[in-house]
Design goal:
There is one protein chain. The protein is mostly helical. The protein has eight helices and three strands, in the order E-H-H-E-E-H-H-H-H-H-H. It has a single domain, classed as Rhopdopsin 7-helix transmembrane proteins (Up-down Bundle). Helix 5 packs antiparallel against helix 6. The protein binds retinal. The site of retinal has 19 residues, from helix 3, helix 4, helix 5, helix 6 and helix 7.
């Protein structure tokens, strides 16, 4: 019949065992996802409450920062409920000296909702920092463009076939894009924040350095979780959870509280937010 296996074909050495290894989220991971979901909701409510003390024309940072935690809450809800996740088939090759190589299948959950979250929240975080330093629209736009390339090529890398040069190619492109982001924020941010006075400059350097350290940890975790697969699914969830709470929640609280204490003129928001699009 048509479905009969031809007998003259030698068995393919890469035939894999019927019982693939599953790397799925465990109870620690699920609990962590729910905890961060709740924390992001609380942060969103707190940031909204903080904005009530500020006139609407000065609420731009509040709106941006609240949006960041709202998006994070949605993404964590998606991950905790098991949506926003897909199963990625990984083939691991074991090389041996005198016998043919053996292969092993691993089915591992990849949380793509993270990349949706990052593609929306990291531009908003850049907007927060860019507006704070008074960076020009052109440089903020370029930083956001590079940031989107970083997140999307990171997504391609996460789903790329294991052990291929392309996978690490995407990762390399993402890292280069990340350097462009830092370049725009650090160089232009530094120059512009200095022009806005010593108090704002000191704050921008502090929150900028804090951001730089946290953001740089993301590609490192990615390298262990999605790259070399040394970090398991729960470990990955917990590591990103800590970073997300610091980079979104603590970052936002620090920004909004300092904003309230800075001299009015340092954080003045002219332009479209206060005046309308056609009245610069
Ligand atoms: C990836 C992998 C590819 C290489 C690089 C990455 C960088 C990710 C970053 C994420 C930041 C996320 C934040 C989230 C919410 O607060 C995509 C992991 C460079 C910098 C700040």
């Amino acid at each position: 019949t048509a479905s009969a296996t031809p007998t003259h074909v030698a068995p393919i050495p890469s035939v894999l065992p019927d019982t693939p290894i599953h790397e799925f989220v465990g109870s620690a991971g699920t609990k962590t996802l729910w905890v961060v979901f709740v924390l992001m909701l609380i942060a969103s409510a707190a940031f909204t409450a903080l904005s009530w003390r500020v006139p609407v024309s000065k609420r731009l940072y509040h709106v941006i920062t609240t949006l960041i935690t709202v998006i994070a809450a949605l993404s964590y809800f998606a991950m905790a409920t098991g949506h926003g996740v897909s199963v990625h088939k990984i083939t691991i090759r074991h090389q041996h000296d005198h016998v043919p190589d053996t292969y092993e299948h691993v089915h591992r959950q990849v949380f793509w909702a993270r990349y949706v979250d990052w593609s929306l929240t990291t531009p908003l975080l850049i907007l927060d920092l860019g507006l704070l330093a008074g960076i020009s629209g052109a440089h903020i736009f370029l930083a956001i463009a590079a940031d989107l390339i970083m997140v999307l090529t990171g997504l391609f890398a996460a789903f790329g076939s294991e052990g291929t040069p392309q996978k690490w190619g995407w990762y390399t492109i993402a890292c280069l894009a990340y350097i462009v982001v830092i370049w725009h924020l650090a160089v232009n941010g530094g120059v512009n924040a200095t022009a806005k006075g010593p108090k704002l400059r000191a704050f921008f350097i502090a929150i900028g350095t804090y951001t730089l350290v946290l953001w740089t940890a993301y590609p490192i975790i990615w390298g262990f979780a999605d790259g070399s697969r040394k970090l398991g699914v729960d470990g990955e969830i917990i590591a990103y959870a800590v970073l997300d709470v610091l980079a979104k929640g603590v970052f936002g609280a620090w920004l909004l509280i300092t904003h309230a204490n800075l001299r009015e003129s340092d954080v003045e928001l002219g332009g479209f937010w206060a005046n309308g699009l056609n009245r610069e």
